[in-house]
Amino acid sequence: MPPPLPDRLPAGTAGPGATLRCDRPHARTEEDPQVPQKLDAAAVRVWCAGALEALGREREEIDAINVYPVADGDTGTNLYLTAESAATAVEAVFAAHESGPGRFGAAGEPETSAVIRAMAHGALLGARGNSGTILAQLLRGIAERVAEGGGVAEALDRAAVLAREAVAHPVEGTVLTVADAAAAGARAAGPGDAAAARAAYEAAREALAATPDRLDVLARAGVVDAGGMGLLAVLRALVAAVTGETPTAPARGPVHGHVHGPVSAPAGACDLEGPAFEVIYLLEADDPAVAVLRARLDALGESLVVVGGDGLWNVHVHVDDAGAAVEAGVEAGRPHRIRITHLAGATAPVPEQVQRAVVVVVPGEGLAGLCAQAGAVTVLARPGEPPASGELVDAIRRAHAREVVLLPNSAELRHTAAAAAEQARTEGVRVALVPTRAAVQGIAALAVHEPARRFDEDVVAMTAAAGATRYAELAVAEHRSWTTAGVCQAGDVLGLIDGDVAVIGTDLTATAVAVLDRMLAAGGELVTLVLSADLPDGPGTAARLERHVRDAHLAVDTVVYESGHGASPLLIGVE
């Protein structure tokens, strides 16, 4: 069995959910003499950045036309998050190259093979949903051929083959059809990557327009395939990266007498009696075990897609028995990053609707229990795995309320939360998004929540409470790096205040004290400490910090909560 790939990229790179503070490259212009007409390392970087930008622009429109295989309105968001993970991994390779010695190509850049393999691996780790999983496999196929020295035509051909093989029951009129058309167009083009990329885009554009003719559910809804539309955006970015020319996006005109826009699938347009759960996990296993797993999951459910290779796989399936799907993964190898989402289309008894509810994203089981006791519906955000918009929409639906206040508790979730709120509004739910950037701000907002108030007044009060709460976080540096507070070494304790590194230390308690003193220098009445269950001597640390606040800062109260396992060692809020 080949050694499994790590689920975290090496030091100097980054995985899904990581934040890289670097400028994204812009697509090269037609006049730029640097345009190589070849998919080299620089072009891969530009391509990933361009694809992410394009999917960001079109995310809401793609979400809106998502009716197959499940009309859960998250295809655009899933594609965006998958592309973001790929782009982040590519940027990390360039950042590692710029900060120290590495593997270099002829032009003094990272080798193309290293860059494009990082792209594919990042997409595999961050793949979301059915569409994102297929996109990850398409990128894997492209990476295989380009790393071997092949051109765009060979790469797209391999990508289409791998993607179709990954889907248990391929359906025409989907992203697979668009990928096949792109590969065929590239094969028929003239020599060179530029010609192949242009031809692939044009063939994919025509295939996308024809998807309603090949899949009845699209024709009835009056839309093209959402996944195919996302792939077209990725191919358009590929043309721009290789040629310097950005093709004109297809007009969003009527399809079968309908106009693109937010849609609700008509009766029979999608399977409302389908499986209740979407199950996704990464799996370390060898090829024979995965073959057995495919057969077992295929018998359990539908929409089965298994992508990856070389010992690491991303498994996606829709099932009624989520436990059985996870158990099958355990028997095949080592599943991790397990994500189970209730699908909107599944039938279930609907409880009586309430007037108002709060949906809050939390970083650990401990805070989930705390917020649930306060009456909130919680969504768990695991390290490196921020929830997709579909999960937030599902939580809003589970709240069964006419009015919902959404607390994302992360700056990185603002676009995802906005997409979820917009989707819920189309379903008749009044949603207000309070832009909380940390869990302690969410706790402050939830503390002043009063369902008896008018909705607008309640939202204003919660927003004010969150805005009046400064937040900090303690983290451990994974490698040597430059920060806003100076150079940190691997293993250093970093104190981040309002998102920026403010203190670098070697001891967690001492660093926390320094952070508290900085935050309280401007005043404060209440300190909130949220400690991870993984923190050694957590109760002792909490007691020492409480004592310091009591002795050094008069008339300041302290409350302590436990966040659970896997969360940041310590979160601090000052109100």
From TrEMBL:
It holds the Pfam family FakA-like_M. GO terms for biological process: glycerol metabolic process. Keywords: Kinase, Transferase. It comes from the Bacteria. Residues 42-240 form the DhaL domain. The keyword Magnesium does not apply. SMART domains: Dak1_2 (SM01121), Dak2 (SM01120). InterPro entries: DegV_domain_contain, DhaL_dom, DhaL_dom_sf, FakA-like_C, FakA-like_M, YloV-like. One of its GO terms (molecular function) is glycerone kinase activity. PANTHER family: DEGV DOMAIN-CONTAINING PROTEIN DR_1986-RELATED, PHOSPHATASE PROTEIN. This is Dihydroxyacetone kinase. The lineage of its organism: Bacteria, Bacillati, Actinomycetota, Actinomycetes, Kitasatosporales.
